[in-house]
Amino acid sequence: MAKAFGKKDKWKLKKKYKIILPEKFGSKEMGLVLSSDPGNLINRKIKYSIRDITQDKQKQHVNVTFKICEVKGDRALTVFDTLKVDRKYLMSRIVPGHTVIDQPFILKLKDADMRVAVNVLTAYKIHTSQKGDM
After folding, report:
1. Chain-wide mean pLDDT for the chain?
2. 115 in helix, strand or coil?
3. Other CB atoms within 10 A of residue 80 CB
């Protein structure tokens, strides 16, 4: 069936924008994102594995999230947002007879608050009273 006269295809209105990583990650071009309006890209989050960025297969369990902060021409500039280690990787490091201590806390910085989760793996099993001391 023919399209209605005068109706525009939404995909044809969209433009391609190159995703550019921050300078600390080498200002690499990591891919493309489509949008009809550059304003819609602001604060959009994009997730990559460190393996994709550094080409190091041993770092595929670490994921980094970037947030688009600015659009200049056909380039979407990003800032670092979060860094996460896969839970499956952490669980593979736990050996029976050892203790795991998880301690999340809020770190207050000048410009923002940051949530940090510390995971401690002990060499042998410890008592709960010793966990509290750590």
Report:
1. 88
2. strand
3. 13
Cα–Cα distances in Å, from 118 out to 47, 64, 97? Answer: 22, 17, 20
Task: Sketch the domain layout of the chain as residue ranges.
Answer: 9-85, 94-134
Q: Quickly count: other Cβ atoms within 10 Å of residue 47's Cβ.
A: 12
Q: CB within 8 A of 114, min separation 6: which ones?
A: 106, 107, 108
- Write out pLDDT tens, residues 116-125: 888 888 888 8
48 and 20 in contact (C-beta within 8 Å)?
A: no
Q: What is the pLDDT of residues 80-123, one digit of tens each?
A: 999 999 989 988 888 888 888 888 889 999 988 888 888 888 88
pTM: 0.77
Burial 8-33 (b: 16+ CB within 10 A, else e): eeeeeeeeebebbbeeebeeeebeeb
